[in-house]
Write a structure and sequence with these properties.
globular; Endonuclease I-creI; alpha+beta; four-stranded antiparallel sheet; 3 domains; 296 residues
């Protein structure tokens, strides 16, 4: 359409009654080229907007709700939020008090708190906030957790590249999301963080259910195909806490295990002869992407 219009102009000018100077023709050609370049720029720019590509290497992944901010420093990334999930207004105290946890979600949180889940208070008298984080390789599992707790969250999950590891120089990509600061988390926070540092609660045998065990294993379990045994990475707990966990596995779920000392602490190893019992107990409630952690 553009070039058709220009042709009409040139034809109109090239009438026998007019003389066309070379300077005039060159001017028309230059204007045509500039006009075409501007037109192509607009097309490319509009297409880039439609594809979801923004500045600062920020890519919105609409199929998962994740946000990638590889170009931003980690300190800045931690403050970024997924634009598609932002709830700009803070909750009032009344709104916070209306959040409750079902028994299933409580059980799941018990297992997650034994694993990688972190609970924090920003002030001594404040409500706890839960911080979920997994390596990028486990992004499907993290999105599964978000599907369970999305109504407790202000923003959706995000992908961040951490600063290079000081020991290895490697850059690790993480997927994470945080909940609101809510009073419904206080009971569990007090059990696991009585003095601000995570411990194994003294009543763990009472509150650990099969659903809790599923998410503890999903977070901290490592299955060895060769030996057909499962290791629970309990390195962050002291020996008293690890003994209590092993005792709970035996008394409540009839799982035979041993405690092994490593360079970084103590781990629990569930023996191969207990794996069939563990599979029967958990197979139907273990998330599909984590079935391999119980040898399925």
């Amino acid at each position: 359409m553009l070039f058709a219009s220009i042709n009409k102009i040139l034809l109109a000018i090239a009438l026998p009654s007019l003389r066309i100077s070379p300077y005039f023709i060159n001017s028309v050609i230059v204007i045509t080229i500039l006009y075409a370049a501007a037109f192509l720029f607009d097309v490319v720019y509009i297409q880039s907007i439609g594809s979801g590509i923004g500045t600062n290497n920020e890519v919105l992944l609409s199929s998962t709700g994740l946000v990638e901010m590889a170009a931003l420093p980690f300190s800045a990334q931690s403050k970024e939020e997924s634009p598609s999930n932002v709830k700009p207004r803070r909750l009032t105290k009344l709104e916070q008090s209306q959040f409750v946890l079902s028994e299933d979600l409580k059980a799941i949180l018990v297992g997650l708190l034994l694993g990688d889940l972190c609970a924090q208070k920003q002030t001594v008298n404040g409500n706890p906030i839960l911080r979920f984080e997994q390596g990028f390789v486990h992004k499907d599992y993290l999105m599964h957790l978000y599907s369970l707790f999305s109504s407790y969250c202000r923003t959706g999950p995000k992908i961040t590249n951490r600063l290079p590891d000081k020991r290895t120089g490697n850059i690790y990509t993480r997927v994470s999301f945080n909940t609101y600061s809510l009073p419904c988390f206080t009971e569990l926070y007090n059990l696991f963080y009585p003095e601000g540092v995570k411990i194994v609660p003294s009543n763990i045998e009472e509150i650990l259910t099969p659903l809790s065990l599923v998410y503890w294993i999903a977070d901290d379990g490592s299955f060895c195909k060769r030996d057909r045994r499962l290791t629970l990475c309990t390195n962050s707990y002291n020996l008293k806490g690890v003994n209590l966990l092993a005792k709970t596995l035996a008394n409540k779920f009839h799982l035979v295990s041993t405690i092994n000392k490593t360079k970084t602490g103590y781990v629990i190893i569930i023996s191969a002869k207990s794996i069939p019992n563990l599979q029967v107990l958990l197979a139907n409630i273990m998330p599909a992407m984590m079935q391999h952690k119980i040898g399925l």
